[in-house]
Task: structure prediction
Amino acid sequence: MPGPRDTDVLVVGAGIAGLSAALAADREGADVTLATKATRPESASTWWAQGGIAVSRDDPAQFKRDIVDASAGTADPGAVDVLVDNADSAVRDVLVDTIGVDFDTNGEGFDYGQEAAHDEPRILHVEAATGKHVHVPFLNYVADETDVRVLEDTAALELLGHEGAVYGAMLERDGGITPTYAGATVLATGGIGALYPRSTNPADATGDGIAMAALAGADVADMEYVQFHPTAYVGDEAGESFLVSEAVRGEGAILRNGDGERFMPDYHEDADLAPRDVVARAVEAEREATGEVVLDVSPLDFEGEFPSLAGKCQDAGVDLPTVPVAPAEHFLCGGVDVDDRGRSSLGRLYAVGECARTGVHGANRLASTSLLEGLVWGLRAGEDAVGNDIRTVEPPELLDRDPELPDNFAAGKFRRLRRVMAEQVGIERTTDGLSRAQAVLRRLKGEVDAYARTRTSRSLYELRAASVVALLVARAAAENRESVGCHYLVDGADDGTERPGATVDTA
Result:
């Protein structure tokens, strides 16, 4: 890897949020470097998105109400205004006019889809594989049609912080580690799916950006709000779990328990299109009571309307028209606390996409708003990040003096972490369980920190990031005594005490 590099704007992550930030900064004439761990599109969370991207159509006020309602009234109204007021123009500018995404049409215009908790069909989509149809052309456009320098297979290990500001990051590629100094740094590192045994995220979604920001002293918020998607294909020991889009239920698919009964009308008036947290808990309860839950796709032309997803089911040996499903970790509503331009509490540090807490989602995210949030905040942050001078600061000393750890070291620690997160910090939580989880996670973080003091590798730093973020999630969940949205505390009660902010030990 080359020696130290200077860049006006350093973007870490190449999903829709990072690409949008890089594009906006490039449009402003900045020298932009985009670093991504990915070596193929599938390594970015955007590629995995199925449902689509929501727009306001002719009724932005209703779109705003739907977002706030889905959040159980906890979404920040100002942030919701920013999202909805910029939705249609951002989608038109970037996705339609610039990169030419061929969204599905119905002969009269866009074929808007219906998803849970939306008052009307407003989802632009490409079958049930919107993410890859957005991500691939966007990545190609940024790499080929702009002056953005794209560094693939490159991981950010630590931020270069000094006196309350960030001046770039330490980047690792092919085992070599070097500082990249930047006028501004934009984190767009995605979610935390790797912290749970079943997730709809890519395998390397270890919360790197959140961990780096927290360790540098940035504020984080709403970390307890981890959204579980109710319908992921269960898979088996030989097969991989995958998301079965909410759009399938939007077209008429029905959830049935192991006795063949439709059960969602007993849980919510919106039945199968109830908010995700409600459906996820119902699916988990019915799986425990009756042995399984399946998604019955017989009410619709599944293969005709969702050919890619139907093909994936067939490749997995699913006996259609029913798909065995279970909840899976899907999206973190919290993250690095940012304002309407993606600015964090540290100078020159921005966060966008799933690693950011913009306030849009509050305690629960409305379906198909994640790509939109990444697009809108990415554009705003990238534009705002331009114009800072580049400053060289003393980089941290990352030691690598001890023998390499065994190949299975990180895998073993991850199994331990995922087990406690699934058992104690999952869909339903208890005060005792969260206390036990914190004890386990503190010990695990201490062990990982001890190894990281004298060894430096991508896998070890990913494990460190995961342990930091897992502890942040568990602590935030324990400190929030009110069950709301994604945070469901079985034995919890709102005691009226004020919550402290989430923090993490840096020692």
Remarks:
- Residues 493-507 have pLDDT under 50 and may be disordered.
- The longest strand covers residues 176-187.
